[in-house]
């Protein structure tokens, strides 16, 4: 669990990672001063032509939220935040941050971060439902809702949240929980493969859902509904590791793989 301990010095900058949709629709929330440091925030918006795929690199500090919508273009809302010793320094730092949105790629660059000088960019992105995604950040969450396609999602310190997604989906985080909510009666596409090192994995599956479920953990219990395991009498009795769950559910289907090293795995029916 030593890697989890490294998160502590990042507590201040992880405030940058809140998904943009948590902010009021008219822009950034009020910041003011935090102790002896000044803060600055601004919204930058852009539109890209939809090409069927999108790559997002949020940089060191920042979260990425991607949602499907009925439009035919990609809409990008970037929330740029800075922390510095003075108001002027915070504004000047923001001017050095670049949100580069062109073609099918969004990248984030900016000045060096050290001491009391920190910055981050969080994204809220609307895409057509059928869009392949490559999303990367270091300190921040990744959230995807309603999207179908090939997805490669990577964060080091932050949670991954997936809601009503489909396709060939692969998500990895080192320090953070993974939360998945499925819909329909069967996975559509290649399958789901999500993994964390330090954190719980929670999967919500509709009753009667067809899939091949594989779940494992090294340090922690596995909890599944009674219908998924002959050893289970109810959801309160855990399936003891190192024995993983590996079985067809309701006739089987594409693979739903959920793995953690340090934490529980919980599968519930909805």
Automatic annotation (TrEMBL):
<keyword id="KW-0732">Signal</keyword>
<feature type="region of interest" description="Disordered">
    <location>
        <begin position="217"/>
        <end position="255"/>
    </location>
</feature>
<feature type="signal peptide">
    <location>
        <begin position="1"/>
        <end position="22"/>
    </location>
</feature>
<protein>
    <recommendedName>
        <fullName>DUF4097 domain-containing protein</fullName>
    </recommendedName>
</protein>
<dbReference type="InterPro" id="IPR025164">
    <property type="entry name" value="Toastrack_DUF4097"/>
</dbReference>
<dbReference type="Pfam" id="PF13349">
    <property type="entry name" value="DUF4097"/>
</dbReference>
<feature type="domain" description="DUF4097">
    <location>
        <begin position="133"/>
        <end position="237"/>
    </location>
</feature>
